[in-house]
Amino acid sequence: MPDDTLIHDPAGGLPRLLEIMRRLRDPDTGCPWDIEQDFDSIAPYTIEESYEVADAIARKDWPELEGELGDLLLQTVYHTQMGAEAGLFDFESVVKSVADKMVARHPHVFGDESRDKSAEQQTADWEKIKAAERAGKAQERTLDGVATGLPALTRAVKLQKRAARVGFDWPETTQVIAKIQEEAAELVEARDTLTQAEIDEEFGDLMFVMANLGRHLGVDPETALRQANAKFTRRFEGVEDALAARGKLPSESNLAEMDSLWDAVKAGEKMPK
């Protein structure tokens, strides 16, 4: 029988969590579901947990954030356990790697460089260090290293930032807006004359330029869209509440009525408290 002392020790800390994961993955005595998992099957959970952390922060739900950060930490522990089983890496090597990276990327804190820099200069220095790291990994192209698994809007902005560093960027916001108008006109044309695949392509082009406009305006498109989603949810629930007060469900209403209630909810949000 394995020794469960550490498993059941509330003060066991990180060693306890690492041991729990090792036991869950034990091919003889572990959990059948956990044993079957691999990097690919766990990756979607890692992404989901990251979003749940961001959601708790957006809602300023600090007790919830504590739990979500634990769930996110578990994802790191899960991947490192699988890495150890495959002889690729382990938790200690992952910790060493990120610690070494932070020291190397902050010479103004842990080295001889002066801390007397603007935020802009520190950002520029950070990018130079990352570029050198990419060169060491044989990532020689401008767009190398921009993760393909990022949310599409976030990746679009990162790709655009990389291209902008080598001068491939519109200097004026008005030029971006003109491009949006061009892409919107092409999408309207595509709707009437092109195939669905071509419509998809034109829509993607429009979204990409919209992300570029956000970058030029200092707006994170992913954050802005999340906020718009939250606003839509809040206002539509207000419409539902107003309909419920009339003894109706949305399916028993019509667009004209719901649109009128939407306007009322919107106006109520703008009234001084």
Automatic annotation (TrEMBL):
Superkingdom, natural source: Bacteria
Domain spans labelled NTP pyrophosphohydrolase MazG-like: 37-110
Pfam families in the record: MazG, PRA-PH
GO BP of this protein: dATP catabolic process; dGTP catabolic process; dTTP catabolic process; dUTP catabolic process; response to stress; TTP catabolic process; UTP catabolic process
Gene3D superfamilies named in the record: MazG-like
Catalytic activity reported: ATP + H2O = AMP + diphosphate + H(+)
Gene Ontology MF: a single term: ATP diphosphatase activity
Family in the record: Belongs to the nucleoside triphosphate pyrophosphohydrolase family.
Name of the protein described by the UniProt record: Nucleoside triphosphate pyrophosphohydrolase
Organism: Yoonia tamlensis
